[in-house]
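Q: I have two molecules that I believe assemble together. Could you output structure tokens for the complex as a whole instead of separate predictions?
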Amino acid sequence: MLQETRARIDRLSLPWNAYGSDPYGICKNDLVWFFSAATFLYRDYFRVRAMGTEHVPSHGRAMLVGNHSGGIALDALIVVAAMFLEKDPPRLAQGMAEKFLANTPFASRLTSRLGHLTGLPEHVVQMLEDERLVLVFPEGARGTAKLFWDRDSLVQFGTGFMRLALQTQSPIIPFGFVGGGEAIPTIANSYKLGRLLGAPYVPFTPWIVPLPLPVRLDVHFGAPMTFEGSGNEDDATIEDKVEEVKRRIADLVAEGRRSLRGA
Amino acid sequence: MKILVTGASGLLAREVIRKLRATQHEIAGIDARPWPDAPAGVNVHVVDVRKRAAEDVFRRFRPNAVIHMATVTHLREKSAERYRINLGGTSAVFDHAEAHGAKHVIFVGRHTFYGAAPDSPLYHKEYEPPIGAHAFPELADLVAADLYACTALWRIPELKTCVLRVCYTLGPSRHGTLSAYLHPRRVPTVMGFDPLFQFMHEDDVAGAIVAALEKRLHGVYNVAGPPPLHLATLIRAVGHTPLRIPEPLLRFAFGRFGLPLLPPGAVTHLKYPVVIDATTFKLATGFQFRYDERQTIDSFRAAPDGK
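A: Yes, here they are, computed for all two components at once.
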């Protein structure tokens, strides 16, 4: 598996320097261990099924936009693994990390070396202009904080991603992620404990810690959505476009839920 | 062209002067420190740039262009004195340049202007304010000097003003902030953090300053070379070992146990990256760095007191 992982990393179209890192600080060696572990989780632990990966362009800029599912960002790990394992040539999806991670020892080091920069508009624009694949969860921390019984719902979407997609003329690839709520069934969130730890909240499961169960996860990618505009439109216009993406993601989540029930 | 270089005895300034001499310019220097073996024809006036004698150099030499490199960047100097030198000196240079007919002033500043913060963009652009500077108050004088130099862009419209924000330099002189930090065999870092560090060969930095002069740049420009490296990678590449210390202990350990004496604010620069986007400078000058990251590191390692 290690050899396969290394071979796929070599096929990523990233400008590696002599020390095996790229201009954003992505490190080849860190990708090797990360994707080795992610491959086990993807194929053996969660038995992930990724549908519609052909909608993700093989080259060039694109924005993967989807729902959060599960108390921690397990969904991000799975989507990144799906792009690496299912695309040929593989693609590295670069997520937008919560700001607190950059200030957290070890998490800061990890996210930076795996290419997940802090969620700032400047980072999204630069990566898209560099023809990278950017992973965005417009629900933000509100999305990972969903409780078990709300697991397939969508909470409020931020609108920044739409302005950035318009500004950079990037296609949006919507996806629906299901199963995360069953893997990490959050029954309560402690916002006080989160504040103490410098995180938005700390999720609790029936077994207290958010360790995921080995349940099947499905991710359904939809056809690319392209929008006309400059990114300078008024809020109402942007919100209409965001609502269109949100509806499409809700459809993909429902599709995923049906498919998961039939599995 | 007549060019006056302030801080002329500094190692980087000497490289700039050597390059300028190769292009037949007439050069003079000002520095409080002597440069005994200055190249023939380069008259280095041993005066403080803030004193009256320095203005007399401007008056008599009447430079067409001034390269202002007389800023103190090391942190051994007391903050109040650094403020006087860096801000007072910059103010004096612009006053004299305007009064004595200079047409172009280049202020050589540092990329640390932007500061390091967990929520700032990875690649800083010239238009950004120094939002992260508050975390490292010991560098406030350099930030103030940079901002003061920027006022000349609108204050003295007849003068072409160029503010360069140059990333760390590294090279065979083993001189400068980054070289000093990398000097111990075990280099202190903050446990759990590994920021990107951006550096450039000192010969390339000198070349970039000369390019700014020759292209008569007006405006603010970031100057950088090869893409940045993670700090731990850099430390290992120079043949040393990262000494990972938890942040609360590191603040206490500075200046003890053989570790360098650094101000508490320096910790932010060991946790978060200060990386700049130098695209505008490259487009304006066509400048290309000659040394990539490996060649730059190798030149540092191979220098006489290398380990």
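A: One point stands out. The mean pLDDT of chain B is 91.
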